[in-house]
């Protein structure tokens, strides 16, 4: 079971890549107090844990019921991230805070989407947990494999919260001018991530269309 856990943990950590969520987290929590920003990181991690656990248990049934695929999630996530990255490049944040909205209300919204889903619990991580559960059903140690997967999900999400909070501390040391420069650089990185998401998702559709065209 330990070897299975190590494999699941390392694979999931690599797939989630917490560092990739830092740019969006920093941009959305820039004006918050350190305490409020840490709360957003924790809530985002909890959201991701719940989402991945639900998809591990019911993912295949959900996709089948709505007749959707993970590739569609990649395309949608890519579009969302591109818009966010473009706004960050212009010195703005998406979603935008409503006038009079408190840190708590705004933080609750952004912690769930887009930080928790689909930045942390993204298409790759969702696909992986579904596949691991399916492989576990064909193995002799189904229960131990499933238990180790949920432990791995919990630890990876907890580490992700730590990584996000550390990114916030880096922002505090840069000052206002440095944070503005970093935000624009992060916006460019988010746009690049968005392009990878989008084309990874749309590629299978293009291949299917090409195969359906008569020679």
Summarize the structure.
The chain crosses the membrane at residues 6-28, 40-66, 72-89, 110-133, 145-165, 185-207. The chain has one domain.
Which features does this protein show?
0% strand, 215 residues, Multi_antbiot-R_MarC, transmembrane helix, 86% helix, single chain, globular, UPF0056 membrane protein, transmembrane, mainly alpha, 7 helices
How would you describe the overall organization of this protein?
The protein is built from 7 helices and no strands. It has one domain (1-212). The chain has helices spanning 2-16, 18-28, 34-66, 70-89, 103-120, 123-138, 142-212. It is globular, with a radius of gyration of 18 Å. The termini are far apart. It is an all-alpha fold and 215 residues long. The longest helix has 71 residues, at 142-212.
Helix content: over 70%
Q: How many H/I helices? A: 7
Average pLDDT taken over every residue = 82
What is the N-to-C succession of helices and strands?
Answer: HHHHHHH
- Which structural class should the secondary elements be placed in? mainly alpha
Radius of gyration: 18 Å
Query: How many strands in all?
Result: 0
Number of domains: 1
Report on the biggest sheet: none
Report the portion of residues in β strands.
under 5%
Q: Shape, please?
A: globular
Low-confidence stretches: none
Please give the alpha-carbon distance between the first and last residues.
50 Å
List the helices and strands and how they pair.
Elements: H1 2-16, H2 18-28, H3 34-66, H4 70-89, H5 103-120, H6 123-138, H7 142-212
Helix pairs in contact: 1-6, 1-7, 2-5, 2-7, 3-5, 3-6, 3-7, 4-6, 4-7, 6-7
